Amino acid sequence: MADGVALNERQPAEKGKKKPEVAQYRKWFEEARDALETSRTESNTDRDYYDGKQWTPEEAQTLKRRKQPVQTFNLIRIAVNGMVGVVERGQTDPKAWPRNAPDEQAADLATKTLRYIADQNRFDRLKTRAARNFFVEGICATIIEVEQEEPDYKVVARRIPWEEYFFDPFSREEDFSDIRYDGVAKWMDQDTVLGMYKEDEDAQAAVETSYEGPISASQSFEDKPNSMWADQKRKRLMVVELYHKEAEGWMRCVFVRGGVLEYGPSPYVDDQGKPLNPIEKQAYARDRDNMPYGAVRDLRSPQDGYNRRQSKLLHMLNVRQTFGSKSAVQDVDKVRRELARPDGHVEIEHGEFGRDFGVIPLVDQVAGQFQLLGIAEQQLLRLAPTPAILGREGQGKSGVAMENEQSAGLTELADAFGGITDWELRVFRQCWARARQFWTNPRWIRISDDLGAPQYLQVNEPVMDEMGNPVLGPDGQPQMQNRLAEAVVDITIDVTPESPTQDHQQYALLGDMIQKGLPIPPEEIIKVMPGLRNKQQMVEGIQKMREMQSQQPNPDMEKIKLEAAKAHEAQNIERQKADDDHKIKVAELELEREKLAFQRMELDFRARELESRERVEMEKIKSGAWQAEQALHAKANTPPN
Questions:
Q1: What element of type H or E holds 460?
Q2: What letter does residue 552 receive in the DSSP assignment?
Q3: Is 464 helix (H, G, I), strand (E, B) or coil?
Q4: Which among 340, 306, 338, 414 has a CA at the least distance from the CA of 90?
Q5: What is the dihedral of CA 598, 600, 601, 607, to 10 degrees?
Q6: Cα gap 218→213, rounded to integer Å
């Protein structure tokens, strides 16, 4: 099919080769159509919510009858745009790694080739649009094919609109790795299809018979005719390109309702030469019925609550509930109109205000509506990226603190962003397979370095002898350098979240390193300076100045070196003197410490000597007292003469 599906060249049908019957392929497609109908309807509703169509006609008419305003505060778009912005802001680059030790040059060649293909396809923009389908409808799909372009082919990655993609409804994996078939169903003008197969009589007949018989209706694949297979009035018909897995690899079939237009193995092969499916797809999530859905599905309910609370609150603030006796107010409608006016005036004919007539307060109801409004808003914000991720916070915070908050906020969204990264990796692997298969002639590719400067590399470069003639190999074919078909590498994705906080943090770290005396070239500092324009020109100017200085002799260099040596020697002398002074002070402190220790020992000795003397004196006193007591006792017991 044209317009981005399969090769843009048509070969005449081989004579005598019979095409298969269309019944099985129609059965597969109609099976997917019927199974996906409910899911596609829900996805269309998700898209409506993202686009701000969040009230049904019946709901809007009901509010109109109540004279209640229809309020729509589209927080879903803000949440989804925040998620898409995180994907767009993240820097992802394909990188090839050598599978074997001698393949380092091939890995560098593959890396530059993939970056060239990404630039040619404006892959960053393609990824952003695919991410929006991923978060809103819940599925993104891309077909990687080739188009004829000098010197041979151009590798093209095209996003498949979600409403044109169908798949095996019995698959369960989010990356659709377990599908039996999938494909693209696209409405095309009859004359366009006939022009594509003008040399194929069977294809011409299949197109003509597509308008015969009953045609079933469906709305999920429309763009937007009202029939499933053909539109007789507008002369448009559904053209389906289906890939299905067989034992020998993936097969490709292009058909309409009336018959098969093309059939055969997939024109794209993998490293082993086996036909593969060129469509890469990814689902945000899948429910128990295997149907994909996006982030909007969880946001619809709190969004409805938020809109209804806003509408109800505005209505309650604009109206009043009153009570009164029949004699107090005669014209009730007039009173209501006056109460609704900012400068309204109500006259009471009889009775007392507050007893015979009054306004019923709605404070409790308004407060309840505000609480429900806050709950809905919190739920919406809870499911969306945090302000730290989106860079809305950070005043007065360090770069490390902001980076930690952003990392914490990304935790809950890691699975979704991981699905996008995995899809991107598979797309680049398909791009590499296309380049190895179809880039067989010499060509120049242009890439940009870190500063945006262009670099050129020739792939499939012929090897020339001294006379300028091609060097032939043992097989008689010209030898080539940087031949893609011979490069054996593994493709990965380098993911680096782009954050101004990190740029400023890196620049600050370089400043600290310079203050510590580390020799950092000025060019490296310029590369990481945030917000600096014309970096490449500044780097080139510094390099030219350095070259000019290196070519011109400097007569004062020896003098400068001598003065530097003298200064260095003086510094060494001062440092040695400082070391000696320090040692002397340490020795003096040690001597003072020993003196204090000796004095402490002398005091302890004297204290113990004094204590011993006191003990001897006490013993003498006790002994004398005892002897005196004994003498008195003996004297008392002696009889008188």
A1: none
A2: S
A3: strand
A4: 414
A5: 150
A6: 16
Contacts of 544-548 with C-beta under 8 Å, sequence gap 24+, read none
SS3 600: helix
Task: Record the tokens describing residue 636, joined without a space.
Answer: 């008392």
E strands in 299-436: 321-324, 357-360
**CA 6 – CA 252 distance, rounded (Å):** 9
Q: Find out whether 145 and 268 touch, Cβ atoms under 8 Å.
A: yes
CA distances (Å), origin 169, targets 137, 254, 287: 16, 20, 12
Structure-token pair, residue 349: 């004919």
Distance between CA atoms of residues 104 and 83, nearest Å: 37
Q: What is the pTM of this model?
A: 0.70
Three-state DSSP string of 289-319? CCCEECCHHHHHHHHHHHHHHHHHHHHHHHC
Structure tokens belonging to residue 413: 């969204």
Quote the tokens at residue 359: 């306004």
CB atoms within 10 A of CB 155: 25
CA separation for the pair 562, 565 (Å, rounded): 5
DSSP H helical ranges for 472-556:
500-515, 522-528, 535-551
User: Taking Cα atoms as reference points, which of 376, 292, 379, 282 lies closest to residue 87?
Assistant: 282
Among residues 499, 486, 328, the alpha carbon closest in space to that of 401 is found at 499
The two tokens of residue 487 are 């490069």
Mean pLDDT by 10 residues, the chain (641 residues): 45 56 92 93 95 92 85 89 86 87 85 93 94 96 94 93 95 95 94 90 85 55 59 89 94 94 94 93 95 93 85 74 75 76 73 75 73 74 61 49 50 84 95 94 79 76 80 78 87 70 61 71 67 63 72 64 80 85 85 84 83 83 81 72 53
> Where do we find the tokens 């745009």?
81
Beta-sheet pairing, 249-256 with 259-265? antiparallel
Tell me the one-letter amino acid at 403. Answer: E
Any idea which residue has 């893609």 for tokens?
Answer: 484
The answer, yes or no, to whether the previous bond of 225 is cis (omega within 30 of 0) is no
Rounded to whole angstroms, the Cα distance separating 295 from 138 reads 7
Structure tokens at 345: 């005036």
How many CB atoms neighbour CB 118 within 10 A?
A: 23
Q: What is the DSSP letter of 386?
A: P
Q: Where are the beta strands (DSSP E) in 71-221?
A: 90-98, 139-149, 152-160, 165-167, 181-189
Give per-residue burial for 586-602: e unless 16+ CB within 10 Å, then b: eeeeeeeeeeeeeeeee
DSSP string, 6-31: S-S--PPPPTTPPPPPSHHHHHHHHH
379, 469, 488: which is closest to 79 by C-alpha?
A: 379
> Is residue 92 a contact partner of residue 495, using CB atoms and an 8 Å limit?
yes
